[in-house]
Amino acid sequence: MKLHEPRSMLLATILIASLSAPSLAEEKDTVVPAQELKAKTDYCKTCHGLSGQGFRGSFPMPRLAGQQPEYVKNQLQAFIERRRTNPVMFNVSHVLTPAMLTALSGYFKDLNPKPLGGAPRDSLAVGKKIYEEGVPAAEVPPCASCHGPDAKGADAFPRLAGQLHDYMIRKLTNWDKERGQDKANPDNSAIMQPIAHNLTEAQIKAVAAYLSTLE
Ligand code: HEC
Ligand code: HEC
C-alpha cells in the first residue's frame, strides 16, 4: 500500500503541472466590485445552499464550502469548454467574465458550515479504510494520498470532506460520461478516471458515506 503513495503523487504532480500551466499563465485579473460579487454568489447559493453546504433538490447540488479555489476554477473552465458536461452549470458559467470567475473561485474557501449529512451509517468503517488505504487488490491507491489525510484537498485536488454522498456516488459512477469529454484536450479528470473505474458500487457507496460525515 505504501508503495502506491509516492507513485500516485508523482503522477498527479506531473499531470497537473503540465495540464494547468496555460491557465495559470493567463491570470491577469481586474477587481470585481463587492456588490457584483455578492449578487453573483447569492445566485450560486440558490442552488448550492446559503452557506455553500450543498442542497438536495431533484438532484444533489454539490457542497462548495471550503472547496479549493484552483479546483473550483478548473471545474468552471471545464463546464465552459464542455470538457465536463452539465447543462445547468454550462449556462451558469459561460457568461462569467474572467475576473468574476477568479473571484468566485476563491469565495467559497472560507465558508465552513456543518456537513449536510443524510448518508447511511452502516459502512462508515469500510469507507474510512478505503479512504486511508485504497483497495490494493484493485490497484486503487489511497484516496488520502491525493485528497489529503483530512480530505480537505489542496490546489487542483478537491476537498471531499462534507461533500454530499449522493453527489459523489453519481460523479464516481458516471466519471467517463461526464468528465474529460474533449479527448483532444485532456485535463486533470484523467487522474481520477482509473480510480473511479476500478471501484465497485459498494466501495463507492461506503467511501462516499464516510467522506460526507467529515467536517
Ligand atoms: C440552477 C442551479 C445552480 C446554480 C444557480 C449554480 N449551480 Fe453550480 N452546480 C449545480 C449542479 C446541479 C452541479 C453538479 C453538476 C454535476 O452533477 O456534475 C453544480 C456544480 C458546480 C461545481 C462543481 C463542483 C464540484 O465539486 O465539482 C462548481 C464549482 C459550481 N457548481 C459552481 C457554481 C457557482 C460559482 C455558481 C454561481 C455563479 C453556481 N455554481 C451556480 C447547480 C447550480
Ligand atoms: C492520484 C491522485 C488521486 C487519488 C489517489 C484519488 N483522487 Fe479523487 N481526484 C483527483 C483529482 C486530481 C481530482 C479532480 C479531477 C478534475 O479536476 O477533473 C479528483 C476528483 C475526485 C472527485 C470529484 C469531486 C467533486 O467535487 O466532483 C471525487 C468524488 C474523488 N476524487 C474521490 C476519490 C476517492 C473516493 C478516491 C479513493 C478511492 C480518490 N478520489 C483518489 C485525484 C486523486
**Total domains, how many?**
1
- Helix fraction bin: 40-55%
Q: Helical element count?
A: 11
As a whole number of angstroms, the C-alpha radius of gyration is 17 Å
Corresponding CATH superfamily: Cytochrome c-like domain
The poorly predicted ranges are none
Large-scale geometry = globular
Topology pattern, helix = H, strand = E: HHEEHHHHHHHHH
Corresponding CATH architecture? Orthogonal Bundle
Mean pLDDT across every amino acid position: 91
Distance N to C terminus: 26 Å
Structural class estimated from helices and strands: mainly alpha
Question: What's the structural blueprint in terms of helices and strands?
Answer:
Blueprint: H1 4-25, H2 34-48, E1 55-56, E2 60-61, H3 69-80, H4 87-93, H5 98-107, H6 124-133, H7 144-147, H8 165-173, H9 175-178, H10 189-198, H11 201-212
Helix pairs in contact: 3-4, 3-5, 6-11, 8-11
Describe this structure in words.
With 215 residues, the protein is an all-alpha fold. It has a single domain (4-212), classed as Cytochrome Bc1 Complex, Chain D, domain 2 (Orthogonal Bundle). 53% of the residues lie in helices and 2% in strands. It has helices spanning 4-25, 34-48, 69-80, 87-93, 98-107, 124-133, 144-147, 165-173, 175-178, 189-198, 201-212, and strands at 55-56, 60-61. A two-stranded antiparallel sheet has the order 1-2. Helix 6 crosses helix 11 (201-212) and helix 8 (165-173) runs antiparallel to helix 11 (201-212). It starts with a helix and ends with a helix. Bound molecules: heme C (2 copies).
